[in-house]
């Protein structure tokens, strides 16, 4: 008898503790209905609570269909890894106040080891933009999906459309991979940035397409070791470090790589933008490499004179110290005459700018470059000829 029981027991233990034996929770079995009308918020939060309590890795499956969600906070820490597999669409309520007052629609806080795979998030932002554009009394607006204080996060194959404000926010995180995402909003929609990263380290964004009314990717204070690769950007405002230096005491931005990107019809290509105010912040160690510009208004730009409506910055200069910024193999067309513009701070000139193999044209002729308070070197061919 024991001869049989022991192998069976071993088999049983193997089954229970095998890492592939993840627990699975189906959103529909928590009471959600895929009809785009029934409120799926509570079912989703109950599924999250179960997954978060599970000592074994778990999967929350969102089947095909449309699920209406109000603002929701998915809080950690959780006991094990969680995968949210989305085959359907998560839909915001029609009334834009429902998420617009919350600031965040889908918010993940203090979660470690989360994957979000597939799915569409539709925030239905049009009503909110119309309110803003009409200058009426509107709610502040919601970001579509935000990660705060989260570590080891994978977001893959997600589509986000028509966010009220920024689509994806990575804030105070470590080790985040965003890949194969599609972000879509009309080019005139206000402040619909694609992905915003700040106070985070070890973030990778790759193989993604971003078309919005504001920055495709914006990079805020406290960002380090950021890797951006294979991005199609446009329409939109380009990939921007900044705005930085609004505050006197501010964390710097360090070690940013943007590689293999195509910008189509954007306002900017690669931009660094700082307020014309005193600040302790800095930007150092940035590499832009192998980039194609198609009809971009400001393909390469550093603007340290940002001072909208002269808000306490007129006749001041930026305290942000910009150092070691390299531009390599950047080619294509500018939609304005000045394709390379370094407008740096008079009190903190840009240092260590490097240009290598640049070819930017305007109306089939070499474009122009313009430098203020900028120092650096060139190598290879540089068209328009450098003013460094
Ligand atoms: C810079 O960031 C990359 C990731 O983007 C990382 O692999 C590399 O180690 C970082 N370099 C330094 C000096 O920290």
TrEMBL record:
<dbReference type="GO" id="GO:0004650">
    <property type="term" value="F:polygalacturonase activity"/>
</dbReference>
<dbReference type="Pfam" id="PF00295">
    <property type="entry name" value="Glyco_hydro_28"/>
</dbReference>
<keyword id="KW-0732">Signal</keyword>
<keyword id="KW-0378">Hydrolase</keyword>
<feature type="signal peptide">
    <location>
        <begin position="1"/>
        <end position="22"/>
    </location>
</feature>
<dbReference type="InterPro" id="IPR012334">
    <property type="entry name" value="Pectin_lyas_fold"/>
</dbReference>
<dbReference type="GO" id="GO:0005975">
    <property type="term" value="P:carbohydrate metabolic process"/>
</dbReference>
<comment type="similarity">
    <text>Belongs to the glycosyl hydrolase 28 family.</text>
</comment>
<dbReference type="InterPro" id="IPR000743">
    <property type="entry name" value="Glyco_hydro_28"/>
</dbReference>
<keyword id="KW-0961">Cell wall biogenesis/degradation</keyword>
<feature type="active site">
    <location>
        <position position="237"/>
    </location>
</feature>
<protein>
    <recommendedName>
        <fullName>Polygalacturonase-like</fullName>
    </recommendedName>
</protein>
<dbReference type="InterPro" id="IPR006626">
    <property type="entry name" value="PbH1"/>
</dbReference>
<dbReference type="GO" id="GO:0071555">
    <property type="term" value="P:cell wall organization"/>
</dbReference>
<dbReference type="InterPro" id="IPR011050">
    <property type="entry name" value="Pectin_lyase_fold/virulence"/>
</dbReference>
<keyword id="KW-0326">Glycosidase</keyword>
<keyword id="KW-0964">Secreted</keyword>
<keyword id="KW-0134">Cell wall</keyword>
């Amino acid at each position: 008898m024991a001869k049989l029981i022991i192998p069976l027991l071993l088999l049983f233990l193997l089954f229970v503790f095998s890492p592939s034996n993840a627990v699975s929770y189906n959103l529909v079995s928590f009471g959600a209905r895929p009809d785009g009308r029934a409120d799926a918020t509570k079912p989703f939060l109950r599924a999250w609570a179960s997954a978060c309590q599970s000592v074994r890795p778990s999967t929350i499956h969102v089947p095909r269909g449309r699920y209406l969600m109000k603002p929701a906070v998915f809080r950690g820490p959780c006991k094990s890894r969680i995968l949210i597999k989305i085959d359907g669409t998560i839909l915001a309520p029609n009334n834009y106040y429902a998420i617009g007052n919350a600031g965040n629609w889908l918010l993940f806080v203090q979660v470690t080891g989360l994957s979000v795979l597939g799915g569409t998030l539709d925030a239905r932002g049009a009503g909110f933009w119309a309110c803003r554009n009409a200058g009426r009394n509107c709610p502040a607006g919601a970001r579509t999906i935000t990660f705060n204080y989260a570590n080891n996060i994978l977001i893959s194959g997600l589509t986000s459309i028509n966010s009220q404000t920024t689509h994806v926010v990575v804030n105070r995180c470590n080790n985040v991979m965003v890949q194969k995402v599609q972000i879509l909003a009309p080019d005139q929609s206000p402040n619909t940035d694609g992905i915003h990263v700040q106070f985070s380290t070890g973030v990778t964004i790759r193989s993604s397409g971003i078309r919005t009314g504001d920055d495709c990717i914006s990079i805020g204070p406290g960002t380090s070791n950021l890797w951006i690769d294979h991005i199609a950007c446009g329409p939109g405002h380009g990939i921007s470090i900044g705005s930085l230096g609004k505050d006197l005491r501010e964390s710097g931005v360090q070690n940013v790589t943007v590689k293999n990107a195509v910008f189509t019809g954007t306002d900017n290509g690669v931009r660094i933008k700082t307020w014309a105010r005193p600040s302790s912040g800095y930007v150092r160690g940035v590499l832009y490499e192998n980039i194609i510009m198609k009809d971009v208004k400001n393909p390469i730009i550093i603007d340290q004179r940002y001072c909208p409506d002269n808000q306490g910055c007129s006749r001041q200069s930026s305290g942000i110290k910009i150092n070691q910024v390299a531009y390599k193999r950047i080619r294509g067309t500018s939609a304005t005459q000045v394709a390379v513009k370094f407008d740096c701070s008079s009190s903190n000139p840009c240092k260590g700018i490097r240009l290598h193999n640049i070819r930017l044209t305007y109306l089939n002729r070499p474009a122009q470059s313009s430098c203020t308070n900028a120092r650096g070197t060139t190598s290879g061919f540089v068209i328009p000829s450098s003013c460094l």
